[in-house]
Amino acid sequence: MTVWCCTTGDAQTGSHSHANVPAQRCSLRAVALAVALAVAFVGACSAGRDATTATSSIALVTSVTAISFDAIGATQSITATVRDQNGAVVAGVTPVFTSSSNAIAAVSGGTVTAVSNGRTTIMVSAGNATASIPVTVSQVAVAPVKIGGDTQAALVGRPLGAAIMVKVRDRLGVAISGRLVAFTVAGGSANPTSATTGIDGTAQTLWTLGTVAGVQLMNVTSAGVSDAATFSATAMPGPAAAIAIAGGDGQTTLAGSTLANPLATAVKDQYGNNVPNVMVTYTVTVGGGSITPGVASTGASGVATGARWTLGNKGGAQSASATAGGLIIAFTANIQSSYSLILRLFGRPLSLATQGAFTDAVDRLRAAIVSPVQTVSLGGFDLAGCGLSGLTGVLNETTAGVIVYASVGPIDGAGKVLAQSGPCVIRTSSALPAVGVMQFDEADIEQYISDGRFKPLVLHEMNHALGLGTIWEDRGLLLNPALNASGAATGSTDPRYSGAAGVANCMALGGAGTACTMATGVAVEASGGAGTADGHWRKSQFGNEVMTGFIAQTSDMPWSAMSVGSFQDLGYTVNLGAADTYRVPNLLTLARMRAAVAQDTTREVLRRPVYGVTAGGQMHPIVRRAR
């Protein structure tokens, strides 16, 4: 406060005057406790005494010395009190408050209200006493407030449809203009990355989503404020751009069986995100078989699954495709078999189609015979001993299955011997073949290739090379043979096969009566002479089954479970699922077959084993005793 003190005395007259007063004094003091102004006045001196000075003052005291506002609309109350020199309140004096700029801060009845950013002064007066209080208004921002653009959705890598908008305010909610706002995203981009708030306190940006599907976040901050406004957006996968295997590839099972795990395909967009609700079609492309269901939809994870793949029964390569729109991917599977069947072609070069018939037969036999047999050594064996024209060379290897040599070459001209086949070397312990041979007359096969019958013909002969019909007698499975060891007729017209698995499967396929019974076995061919009799199923009972003794006039010659079961009787481990669909025909069907076509007049030669071999490789010729 500032205090002025003045005294004037006139002892003679007792009068008071402000002029010509020799004893007048003025002094200026600073008082720190409050804003105050002391006003001096002259007191009268009693007559007849020495002149003395009497001092009296008043003080204007305010409750604040300065005001600082952080928000528009904020208020501050001021009190001002008038006191005398003794500290007593002076009654009847009312302070008056005014603002030097009502546009910045207004005052009413002692209450100051912030109006806009800036500086002003509040004046307080009481009589001639005044005081000034400086006022500063400067808005302080709080966390930005979301105005628009939250919780939108768009495709990955695409901009959102609406702008991201925030408002910067002070603590009382009044907009702050001219404030810098930053837009920060973890993925994607903001344009612009920062902006200054307008007069309404708002700022905005455009948000382009990142390339990872799912919820994405943007944080918006204002300069000097730690708290942020957080926006979220859902990035949806884009259109299908690629497909990938998600499960079920590379499995192994038996031919004709269903794989353990379903096929699963993931459909992805251009950024690798899984795409839901896409139809995926599954199709077998190689090997036959089937897939059920053939169509599946991708789920929330973008994977289409549940498709069960049953492999083809014919063995060989197995593949399937999954397609979605124009996208395609391949699955593969493997036929379960550890049986070793090595095919070696010799003689003249063969066309690819002819070679394919041989490899198809290998695939079928390996699909049906699934386990290795005794390993034997073939070291030093001279192939010329098999007695097949053109077959030469010396073996120096072991086998846990069979090595089959096959060729197309001259035999005896057209319309006579079509083919010859059988084991050359068998194991002495089990009679299972270790080396087999097959030969087809070049004068006959073109017709069979052209009409589609060459493939079942090769399968037929390879069955013989592995023992079907050629070692039945060695294994004690042939009853009532039609021919003796020399090939002469015995007089029997009803040779029968007695192997339990062959019989059981014949009956399961509908065979009964003269075809097959548990008591009598399976009917074996009695006609056709050497090379046909005693080594095939009876044509009159089993029709077009591929292992009957006379080739059918159609390429549809099924390989039945009866034939596959016969390999089980020989000592192999078999998979009946590799067999074709077949039913033993009834008498009416057989009669129609005979009436519809003429019987093929070509014949074959069944070759009986020539040598036996021990596990250690000791070879000895097989001598056949007369029955």
Instruction: Tell me roughly what share of residues is in helical segments.
Output: 10-25%
Topology, number of strands: 45
- Kindly provide the radius of gyration, computed on alpha-carbon positions and rounded to a whole number of angstroms: 56 Å
Query: Which blocks of ≥5 consecutive residues have pLDDT under 50?
Result: 1-56
Described by its quaternary structure, the protein is single chain
Helix segment tally: 7
Q: Strand portion, in percent? A: 35-45%
Mean pLDDT over the full residue set: 89
Number of domains: 4
Q: Please identify the structural class as seen in this structure.
A: mainly beta
Largest sheet: 7 strands, mixed
Spatial shape: rod-shaped
N- to C-terminal separation? Answer: 148 Å
Can you walk through the features of this model?
- The protein has seven helices and 45 strands.
- Helix content is 11%, strand content 35%.
- The model is unreliable at 1-56 (pLDDT under 50).
- β37 (417-427) and β38 form a beta hairpin.
- With 627 residues, the protein is mainly beta.
- The chain folds into four domains: 2-137, no CATH class; 145-234, Sandwich (Immunoglobulin-like), CATH 2.60.40.10; 242-335, Immunoglobulin-like, CATH 2.60.40; 341-620, no CATH class.
- Strands 31, 36, 37, 38, 43, 44 and 45 form a seven-stranded mixed sheet that branches. Strands 14-21-20-16-18 form a five-stranded mixed sheet, with no helix packed on it.
